[in-house]
Amino acid sequence: MARLALVALLATLTGCDQVFDFENPAPTCPPTFMPIAGGSYLRNPNRLTWPDAEAACEALHNPGEGQIHLAVLSNEAEFTAIHASLGLECWLGHTDNETDSLFRPITKEPTPWPPSTAPPWLSGQPNNIGTQHCLWIDETGQLDNKDCMLDHYASVCECDSFAPVP
Q1: Residue 140: other Cβ atoms inside 10 A
Q2: Which residue segments constitute the domains of the chain, with CATH numbers given?
Q3: What pLDDT, in 10s, does the model give residues 22-42?
Q4: What's the whole-model pTM score?
Q5: Which of 4, 37, 65, 127 sits 20 to 30 Å CA-CA off 28?
């Protein structure tokens, strides 16, 4: 509480309107990651299953750097910026393994995104046919749920301060 009061006092005295997030400070990310929409991302062009794509992202982590995982998107603006910058079909870091059609991030990042239905979902999606539990973005910038183990796509890795969900 004292730290929060100190931050508020400093912000008032300096005229600074931005407050540093002590719980999730900006991480140091590898130089190969691109800054997009306030985050750091890397395109992996290798066509992998969702679990292999996540493992490939995690393998990029170096001690002292931020967490690296499949990209977890927080809102429509971030989604649009990622697609505009990287423009590819790719896996994203959301699954509905716990509850069908309720896609949750693979990290502890608090995000209500993606919406449960309607755009940016493809028409009729998510439909959860068989084992379709992993989030994928198509070349037109729409979402679909795909089979995590059978389908092979490129992916987007993200470097941030959010730990994985256990």
Answers
A1: 10
A2: 27-160 (3.10.100.10)
A3: 455 568 999 999 999 989 999
A4: 0.82
A5: 4
